[in-house]
């Protein structure tokens, strides 16, 4: 069982961001945290397995003082396993030394920084709230404090990006001995400032392959289309849980939870969520939906999927792909050889 908690506050709205986050609702922080506690208490009552991973994401969790998380950690304590992976996302401008120390003392053992780049011009273009110097110092603080599982997000495929520029970002992370890198290609999402500005995005498959190779040469194993870890132990167990289709609780405005064949959605707007954090929309998943998800997610990561979930027609198409050497099979589990082709291969099998 996985647990996700959503913090929908941000200091600035990044021009590419379609996440449920707000820059003008800070006055609701306290009430929001109380609503989270209410939903958390309610949802935890319904689980039959202990929590293996907690992920505090957003938005920007570091916009909330660490003291404000105390009650949440008290509530979850009886429900989590001893070596629970507890990750918090944060942004360099708000993850102060005090915040990082405070979160560590509460139990956070994995930190994920939204770095995106160490190039100030690029950070400005993306409308990030931090600069390169701030990112470096926040990461160094986290290392000094004793976090030994750190992720940094890096975005690529932005106008004026070149392999040389991205390489500098990775070289900085290698010097810092960061354990995990999420390297994402920019997507132009509807409802964002960048949507309809096709000139902002570089569609260059060659660049992706160069990045994958460079990370590999420097000791990082790609275990998902955008995720790279120095060692198996540093892979995100939380994300892996999603890809393995484990059950998860989704706490907070715009979060999503999934229990067996049901997905549930708390209210998206902060005010509505605060009014009634237990007002969910529920969606029932068909067996077909679950197969689609398992194949799509399985091919995007090193987990693969069990071929026995496929029907006869799908199996036939799978065999074609195996014969063409596009996928491989080990004891009935199907693995992808090229994550960039994941969607294409999945759609072919499922068509
Ligand atoms: S900090 Fe993250 S969540 Fe907030 S606007 Fe930027 S990308 Fe979106």
Automatic annotation (TrEMBL):
It holds the Pfam family Radical_SAM. SMART domains: Elp3 (SM00729). GO terms for molecular function: 4 iron, 4 sulfur cluster binding; coproporphyrinogen oxidase activity; metal ion binding. Residues 1-224 form the Radical SAM core domain. One of its GO terms (cellular component) is cytoplasm. PROSITE patterns: RADICAL_SAM. It is found in: Cytoplasm. Its cofactor is [4Fe-4S] cluster. Transmembrane segments: none annotated. InterPro entries: Aldolase_TIM, Coproporphyrinogen-III_oxidase, Elp3/MiaA/NifB-like_rSAM, HemW-like, rSAM, rSAM_sf. GO terms for biological process: porphyrin-containing compound biosynthetic process. Keywords: 4Fe-4S, Chaperone, Cytoplasm, Heme, Iron, Iron-sulfur, Metal-binding, S-adenosyl-L-methionine. Belongs to the anaerobic coproporphyrinogen-III oxidase family. HemW subfamily. Probably acts as a heme chaperone, transferring heme to an unknown acceptor. Binds one molecule of heme per monomer, possibly covalently. Binds 1 [4Fe-4S] cluster. The cluster is coordinated with 3 cysteines and an exchangeable S-adenosyl-L-methionine. This is Heme chaperone HemW. The lineage of its organism: Bacteria, Pseudomonadati, Campylobacterota, Epsilonproteobacteria, Campylobacterales.
